[in-house]
Design brief:
Shape: elongated
Number of strands: 5
Helix content: 25-40%
Low-confidence stretches: 1-17
Largest sheet: 3 strands, antiparallel
Radius of gyration: 27 Å
Distance between the termini: 68 Å
Structural class: alpha+beta
Strand content: 5-15%
Number of helices: 3
Order of helices and strands: EEEHHEEH
Length: 168
Amino acid sequence: MSTDDSNGTAAVGAGGDDDAPLPPLTSIWDCEFVEKTIEEIDGVVIKVWKCLHPGCTRYKKPNKQHNASKVLAHFMRQRGMNVAALCTGAISVPKMNQYKDLQDGKAFAKMDKAQKKRQLTTDIHDTQAEVAAMLTGATKPAYCEATHSNVILPARMRSYAALSSVAR
């Protein structure tokens, strides 16, 4: 079912009934091929995880830290994630697709969260500018280079903003 590729890692398996799609994972810790434990090593209690994919050189060797991103990078054989070793075990195509879907979902959620945070920051800034305008009696907001948006300046600075906008 699996063969060695040019860099010595087991290739992703193909064929047979193993190609049926698997249900999506919500976390890499829900996967049956990772064991998350706490062990005592040299008298120190540490969090560890183990890869349970058959044929993996990291099989039954503890990996320090419970870091889901590193576990996923290990399973997906992604370099550059500061992973001790990439998985050399036999991973079926549906399982690899399940990992890819999990990774894509996490990346989308991260981008969505960042976009919502930017939107919230913009909304707060706009609301504060409107309140400042009502309190100071300002009628026209000035452009702020630092925030790349319009801001309401206090009365003592309005004349400076008018001069700087004419200079542009």
